[in-house]
Amino acid sequence: MADHAEPGVVGVLFDIDDTLVDTQGAFGHALHAVINEYLPGVESERRAEVLHHWRRDPTGYYRAYTRGEIGYQAQRMARANELHAVFGGPELDEEGYEAWNALFETGFRSGWRAHPDAKPAVRALRAAGHPLGALSNAAVEYQALKLAAVGLVADVPMLVGVDTLGVGKPDPRVFVEACRRLGTEPGRTVYVGDELDIDARGASAAGLHGIWLDRPGPRRIEVSAEEIEASGVAMISSLSELPAMLGEIARR
User: Fold this and answer.
1) Residue (of 123, 146, 126) closest to 136 by Cα position
2) What's the pTM?
3) Burial of 129 (0-12, 13-18, 19+ CB in 10 A)
4) In this structure, what DSSP letter does residue 44 have?
5) Are 206 and 176 in contact (CB under 8 A)?
6) DSSP summary character for residue 13
7) Which residues 6+ apart lie within 8 Å of 75 measured at CB?
């Protein structure tokens, strides 16, 4: 593995959800339909709570999926039933979940949009000659569809997903494999993502330069000031700051 003292940053790897793509907004689209159909008792002022609960995933079903402990549809069905239990919806059997998921997925896909800062930053990095790619904790094919829908798949090809090695971030193997496919050494590669632990700290532990994208607004999982200080990773609040951050890392 390359040494961090090696000068310069060559490659840039991106997380996708809530980094390049406004997945929070897309979940809002999906859950609007779910509330109308399955949770009619939820008052308008509580709709934000439904979104927050879904994103937070308090039982950790999605992270169990990224560790290879549960299947994709099994985790989503478990999350749907947990959501219903909290907000007064019916328990879903397999047939009921199939209909629920079709409604959710239609709403989710209709809400896929790139963050406004994504394309300008990506294209500035490409113009500067940096090879770019994506590493995600979702399946490669699904994330490639998402990148295509928002107009970024040609700029940021999907390289590694949770189905590539059967595990996801923060396992160091997925970061190293993404670098291999990008054609860059870990020590000369940056990874940018919106989660401090699995993205920025996970990348740093694997020998990359981890950058935490802490966008304004409520975080999916709250992080204390002590955790942020102890992490030692670089932080940005917008992808517009990324080109300058690469220069700063190169000068360290």
Assistant:
1) 146
2) 0.91
3) exposed
4) G
5) yes
6) E
7) 61, 62, 64, 65
CA 129, CA 243: separation in Å to the nearest integer? 12
Q: What is the largest CA-CA distance in the chain?
A: 58
User: How many CA atoms lie less than 13 Å away from 212 in the CB half-sphere?
Assistant: 20
If phi > 0 it is left, if psi is from -120 to 50 it is alpha, else beta; for residue 29 that is alpha
Cα distance between the two ends of the chain: 19
d(CA 155, CA 136): 16
On whether the CB atoms of residues 234 and 243 are closer than 8 A, the answer is no
Distances (CA, A) of 35 to 75, 77, 220: 19, 16, 20
Asked whether the beta carbons of 14 and 130 are under 8 A apart, the reply is no
Q: Is 190:181 a contact under the CB 8 Å cutoff?
A: no
pLDDT tens by residue, the chain, 252 residues: 333 334 577 999 999 999 999 999 999 999 999 999 999 999 988 999 999 999 999 999 999 999 999 999 999 999 999 999 999 999 999 999 999 999 999 999 999 999 999 999 999 999 999 999 999 999 999 999 999 999 999 999 999 999 999 999 999 999 999 999 999 999 999 999 999 999 999 999 999 999 999 998 877 777 777 887 788 889 999 999 999 999 888 777
**How far, in Å, CA of 238 to CA of 118, rounded?**
9
Among 5, 23, 4, 9, which residue's Cα sits nearest to residue 195? 23
C-alpha–C-alpha distance, residues 215 and 76, integer Å = 26
The number of angstroms, rounded, from the C-alpha of 187 to the middle of its chain's C-alpha atoms is: 22
Chain length of the chain: 252
